[in-house]
Amino acid sequence: MRQRFESFDDYWGWIVDQPDDDFPICSLARQIETSIQERTKGEDKKNVETAIRRAARELVFLFDLCLHLDEDFGSHSQAIGLLAILALEGIRSAIETRDLSDFARWGAYQCYVEMHALEVFKLKAAIEHVEKKYFDGHSLLLKSRVEELDRHVATVDQVAADWNQLLLLFRLNPEESRRKTKAGRKSLGPLDLDLDLEALKKSVDSNGWTKNLIDCAKAEALEMTGERDAAISILKRVIGGR
């Protein structure tokens, strides 16, 4: 349902215009309850109620997880945008200095580029993990979010290509590099500055972010289904781990 909307504002604009009974989570809850009641006819009433409550808790969990993922995407995306500016500034500064012997500055430029790439890879990996584990691989992001993530990935590829091309150009003048190194500056060697996107992808660990996201959604689901103590226990663990 959400994927047909361009943005979060469009989605919520549609929701507020719906009657209360047609609110997505309410409609789904009724369908689940009806399905369980039909499937468990003749069984103990208490067992049926327990099955309905568990299904409702799972529904609320998935619903909240979807909302949290979209909200967190927005905050992470803003930070990635700032890191992209730093990465591009690093490349611009490197072009202007053309001084391979100043590895302190080159190392800083490389750090900007790698930080940007890592945050994009982490965000993408976290989203794909949640989609695969809890939603059978179905896309959760709104259309505008998908396009935004694609732009982030494309920017990483372009920045990496520009960075490595810049290094290649400077390596075409090894005599200048040796002359400046002899002047007393510490050399890291040109290969130390290569940007390997595949290696960065393999180093990504998005478990911390996804775990907090999942735990918060679980806590809200427990709270809404009357299991307050269990919800508080999870929230204490989340807060304690920060």
List keywords for this structure.
mainly alpha
Can you offer a commentary on this structure?
This protein has helices at 8-16, 24-39, 45-97, 103-134, 143-171, 174-182, 197-203, 207-224, 228-240. α2 (24-39) packs across α3, α3 packs antiparallel against α8 and α8 (207-224) runs antiparallel to α9. The chain starts with 7 loop residues before the first helix and ends with a helix. The protein has one domain. It is mostly helical and 242 residues long.
Elements, N to C (H/E) = HHHHHHHHH
Distance between the termini: 34 Å
- What is the domain total for the residues? 1
Shape field: elongated
Short recap of the structure:
The chain is mainly alpha-helical. The chain has helices at 8-16, 24-39, 45-97, 103-134, 143-171, 174-182, 197-203, 207-224, 228-240. The chain has one domain (2-240).
